[in-house]
């Protein structure tokens, strides 16, 4: 029996005014942010893990970064975003938060920027950027994850498209979905990580480094 959305949402507490403002801004401006059930799972897993450092691939307007920082007051978050307009929006919202000092935003394409000289290792990595590039993101940044660290990857379900036969997927999105399928298969076979998929929100993959 499927769990109703109303029952799922009954476990989610109201957010503070800033987060509510950001959620409304994202809705009105078609900015993709994590669905509430998924980010609540992510935050709970992070509370259990207690990472001291998190690398986020895909800042958008800073919603996830602010929520992670609020949940983990002692944690430093480095977030990479290539869209300069989104970076300015994220900085605006961060300036209104109580966690601005915890979050460092790096502007640039995550596949091109070089952060290794400044940040040698992370306890956790959160990937929520271009879905068709997930394997490239993973290959570039997984060497920075500590042993026992965790990589969290959102949007694995891709609004249900990942569950369709490729011929049923809109043509313009087939390459992205093909790449996402290949990445999922690759992670399942990756013996360096213990990976589990959670069908929450738009699909959250959690990978623990052995």
Automatic annotation (TrEMBL):
Q: Which domain of life is it from?
A: Bacteria
* Catalytic activity, reaction form: 5-hydroxyuridine(34) in tRNA + S-adenosyl-L-methionine = 5-methoxyuridine(34) in tRNA + S-adenosyl-L-homocysteine + H(+)
Q: Which GO terms describe its molecular function?
A: magnesium ion binding; O-methyltransferase activity; S-adenosylmethionine-dependent methyltransferase activity; tRNA (uridine) methyltransferase activity
Checking SUPFAM superfamilies in the record gives: S-adenosyl-L-methionine-dependent methyltransferases
- Note the PROSITE patterns from the entry: SAM_OMT_I
Keywords of this protein's UniProt record, alphabetized?
Magnesium, Metal-binding, Methyltransferase, S-adenosyl-L-methionine, Transferase, tRNA processing
Functional note: Catalyzes the methylation of 5-hydroxyuridine (ho5U) to form 5-methoxyuridine (mo5U) at position 34 in tRNAs.
- Family to which the UniProt record says this protein belongs: Belongs to the class I-like SAM-binding methyltransferase superfamily. Cation-dependent O-methyltransferase family.
Quaternary structure, from the entry: Homodimer.
What is this protein called in UniProt? tRNA 5-hydroxyuridine methyltransferase
Q: Lineage in the entry?
A: Bacteria, Bacillati, Bacillota, Bacilli, Bacillales
């Amino acid at each position: 029996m499927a769990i109703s959305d109303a029952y799922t949402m009954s476990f989610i507490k109201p957010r503070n005014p800033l987060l509510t403002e950001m959620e409304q801004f994202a809705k009105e401006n078609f900015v993709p942010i994590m669905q509430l059930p998924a980010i609540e799972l992510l935050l709970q897993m992070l509370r259990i893990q207690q990472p001291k450092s998190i690398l986020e691939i895909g800042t958008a307007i800073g919603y996830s970064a602010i929520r992670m920082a609020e949940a983990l007051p002692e944690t430093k978050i480095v977030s990479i975003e290539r869209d300069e307009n989104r970076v300015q929006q994220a900085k605006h919202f961060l300036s209104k938060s109580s966690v601005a000092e915890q979050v460092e935003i790096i502007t640039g394409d995550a596949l091109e920027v070089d952060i290794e000289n400044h940040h040698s290792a992370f306890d956790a990595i959160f990937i929520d950027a271009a879905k068709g590039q997930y394997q490239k993101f993973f290959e570039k940044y997984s060497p920075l994850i500590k042993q026992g660290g965790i990589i969290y990857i959102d949007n694995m379900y891709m609004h249900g498209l990942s569950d369709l036969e490729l011929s049923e997927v809109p043509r313009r999105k087939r390459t992205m979905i093909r790449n996402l399928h290949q990445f999922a298969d690759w992670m399942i076979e990756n013996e360096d990580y213990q990976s589990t998929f959670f069908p929450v929100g738009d699909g959250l993959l959690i990978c623990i480094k052995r």
